[in-house]
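RETRY 2/3 - previous attempt timed out on the joint model. Re-submitting the same 280-residue input unchanged.
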Amino acid sequence: MKPGAFEYRKATTVKDAVAWLHSDLNSKILAGGQSLVPVMNFRLAHPSLLVDINEIAALHQITFNADTVTLGALVRHQEMAESTEVRDRLPLLAVTARHIGHWAIRNRGTLGGSLAHADPASEWPAVMVALEAQIQVEGPDGARTIPASEFYLGYYTTELAADEIVTAVTISRTRHRLGFAEVARRPGDFALAGSIVEDFGDGQGSVTWFGVAGKPERVVLALPEEESARARSFQSALGKLSQLDDDRHRQQLAVTVAERAFQHSRLTGHEYLTFEGGQV
Ligand SMILES: Cc1cc2nc3c(=O)[nH]c(=O)nc-3n(C[C@H](O)[C@H](O)[C@H](O)COP(=O)(O)OP(=O)(O)OC[C@H]3O[C@@H](n4cnc5c(N)ncnc54)[C@H](O)[C@@H]3O)c2cc1C
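RETRY 2/3 succeeded.
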């Protein structure tokens, strides 16, 4: 199918984009188009105006500071997989990016688009919640920062107003050991279940899932050395999710992927990156 008629405008500044969104609350931002365009083609979305933000240079940047990294909303998934700095300094992001769709999708799809789209099976929302990221947004009343933990409200629903844009995400680089794992039916498919585990090193840690609940939530839990005790801890953490899917199969997968993510947190950054991408 093809989309209905719409007006198209190309913004070169965030200010213009916000003003156009504000002038027509039935407008939509066009970033990579990898989620929006299929939804429009199926006539599930009927925006009257598309505001293309791809030419806003400031949104493409990745900036490393001493303790933080700031990722612009237009950083593409594939850039995250290939950037030498990201691979060296935050390998979790490079590993995660490899799991998103196929190359063509990764080559166009953007971090900001994925965060705003809020698909509960998407990798980036869960990763940003797991890393306690700060999401920067801009609207007609100026800029504001929303902790990722407060950004997601439920299935495809966020705190973002219709006339606000995600501009960047800031992550602290001083994290403990991190691991990622997901299970999908075929390489390139959305995950049936996925997980990010952070091991604090003192028998405690955190787990964040995607694909198993309406929104990502970070749960702090005990990470005992003994595997069956760890499985019970993951199971109990799963029960704390406010929008847990009632599919028992997914719940079992969730415990399995959390254990794999825990195992991956024991790999060094280099081992992690050379780990077979599709195998986890
Ligand atoms: C076959 C297929 C497989 C896929 N597999 C996966 C997968 O495994 N994992 C996964 O995570 N994703 C997957 N995707 C989705 C892909 O990652 C998209 O790139 C992503 O969801 C949306 O990013 P985008 O830049 O393409 O956004 P767009 O499609 O342009 O926009 C998506 C939505 O976000 C809004 N938006 C975009 N940018 C911003 C912004 N900066 N501020 C505010 N709102 C904004 C748009 O208005 C729209 O509502 C898949 C897509 C396809 C077609």
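The pocket of flavin-adenine dinucleotide is lined by residues 28-36, 38, 73, 100-101, 105, 109-110, 112-114, 116-117, 122-123, 160, 165-166, 190 (CB under 6 Å). Closing ticket.
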